[in-house]
């Protein structure tokens, strides 16, 4: 059935159908969420186990290994990553992507529950969560109020702001950074404890038993039922100080006789500073599936409402990714419109007919807008990936309409009426239009089925591009011929353009000099691949955003005040850079700008993160990487600190990981590797977690003395833990206030923890009475690992190498060429972790997608042309498109990366379109018009050159704003795709118009030779 003819005869159904599709598309567009990246389902589950006070060695032996061994047999497990720090072990189980994430979560949960009895009883219950892309903050604010103390401001954030913002649609969590936490401090006097022979544990236990409310059953008094409640609580720190507690020998003492009791704050372990000013920060995390822009705007409106009720409060935004999301969205939408406008200008330039241009231009919105309806049904969002698909196919969408309208215009010039021209031209070009569209679909759709994490992202890319192209086909076959039949006017014959006459002479020369043509093409093709070998490779291009970070890590053992001082020293250095406008410092807490794939873990007082706001792109001359190089050089003066420059979530680093079961061999060899890594030219800092030792106070019991006095190791450890750090949170007594509970923390005075002699005089309760700690144990200062990293149940040491603007592939090649890496000893291996692994996976996936695309194109062409040989001619266009892509990358100094690979895939489909138009017309001319091969080819060149050049220029013009990065926001991710497509279009169009006719003749000769061979064989059999 000829749908174009049906639509011309019955225009109303087609018009009504597109009105309905457009309406559905607009409604879907309004309802869709705007995000930076799609919320992909990653089957990665994290187990966080905490045991306050435990050393990393202890956490590894008693917790991490047991959890790893239990999870090792989980179905579909790919890798286990473990990070152990002081009191915390984080085990991340990465499952294969085909595993359902909810099933993986339940599997891990049941496994950990099964082994809970094997884990230390004093360990807190493990927290099991699924890794989500939305788990990192999208915006960070600071708050200050001159009328509130720091404690009041911290509670204001915890209570008022958290309640307010959690009521905003899409907000998943609000995390406070900095500030202080109110608590009742019971600071014991070690001398009085010694005089009374009591332990800190006894005091803490007594308080938790006395200071409580407890249910007491039920009574029936006076004919009514009453509940019984035991109320044994005090309301203030003063009342608590007057409380009497009993000690072992039967005496009673008041609490204030052995301790200073105060309503104070917990020990300071974190801080937030805004340009050096102490503030309280809070981070906003969106919930899964929510829109970044909607959440950001909702939070801003809620905080504006807060400002009206609390005018003295100053709230400032210091870090956000919402602007980046909105700029990406706005820039992509602008480029879609700019590309559409440029494509329309190309049509006007060639056709020089306003009505024909309007008909062709109508195809763009009618192909794009209904696509949103299908995206909405599929559950897609408006994000970088889907907008990328639309901005790249914007030039393609008008192609089918251009081919249709150009053919109709040519028939009009023959003297036909618009109705007759539309009927005949649409029928003539129909097969070619269908073939070109389905080849594009055959190219785009395989990207939706790519493997690995990149494949998860490109599901939405492949389907969005394929659906938009299919809608363009529907428009070209239903609406364009129908509009042409009723809207165009008769047209007189126009003179042949001069460029077309020149081209026909070239085509005739190529057909007459076939070997020379192919030889020159082969030289160009081989030369381009030699050129490609010199191109750098990267996972993704370097961004030019206006935000970056500096992460400081001090040696283990440094205190909070030392980290604070060094962070301020770093801030003074950073703020001197003329391109820096704001510095937000988070010490010991916060996950702003972190990598979603890396677990944040517990806070650490020796770490500080400085989030830096740069001038907008248009106000600075330097790219972000150049500014980061300046900061890196300036920060070299900082003494005794490891620092990293760059956002944790960006591709600014190369990660090298060594694994081994022999921890001593691993540590020794890692030193050698680290030395060689620092000799690589052009890289930034090399940061390693090897040989990071922290000072420890090691208590070793004298087993004989301890047994004689009835003292156990458990009693010694518990006495020290409570005395120096306080009891576990769940065991602490609580002071009830109208709006909250305050923990009552019993421990030694801060100064008492600085004297090892004093600690040795702590009292430990034995079965024969209290004894001094020093009489049953020795105390000594030693060292142990501050952090332990494990990969697939083996110890590992990681190196983070700052790329400093270098391509990832180049740095990787330099690293793998080092002698220490090439000649590793037995027992030490490289672990495939990080962007390098993803880059290899990406290139392999794209290679498979390209091969699948080529096979799909061939199958489509065989089905449409009913021929196995001539589709091979069309596929030659793929070879002719690649040299231009590599040449464009070389001239623009662009690396081969994820976006440029997408561009090459897209180029395959576009290049095939040109060949189809030529070959299809030549075949039809020979079959139906009785032309010779040479006449048919030259006729095809004459009739099809204009639509080929028009579609090429329309596509090139449509992608030019993307290539030149003219839109709002950072276009560093989009630009390489367009560069590849434009470069490939230029060479493939030029070469297709000249080389494809030559290839056609060779394929035709091969077909004739095979036919003659079959004929001779048949005749020979007939004779015998």
Automatic annotation (TrEMBL):
SUPFAM superfamilies per UniProt: Multidrug efflux transporter AcrB pore domain, PN1, PN2, PC1 and PC2 subdomains (SSF82693), Multidrug efflux transporter AcrB TolC docking domain, DN and DC subdomains (SSF82714), Multidrug efflux transporter AcrB transmembrane domain (SSF82866)
Keywords assigned by UniProt, alphabetized: Membrane, Transmembrane, Transmembrane helix
Keyword Transmembrane listed: yes
Pfam families: ACR_tran
GO CC aspect terms: plasma membrane
Gene Ontology molecular function: any one: xenobiotic transmembrane transporter activity
Record-annotated membrane-spanning stretches: 12-32, 335-351, 358-378, 384-405, 425-445, 457-479, 518-539, 842-865, 872-896, 902-924, 945-964, 976-1003
Keyword 4Fe-4S: no
PANTHER family per the UniProt record, alphabetical: ACR FAMILY TRANSPORT PROTEIN (PTHR32063:SF77), PTHR32063
Record-given protein name: Multidrug resistance protein MdtC
Species the sequence originates in: mine drainage metagenome
Taxonomic lineage of the native organism: unclassified sequences, metagenomes, ecological metagenomes
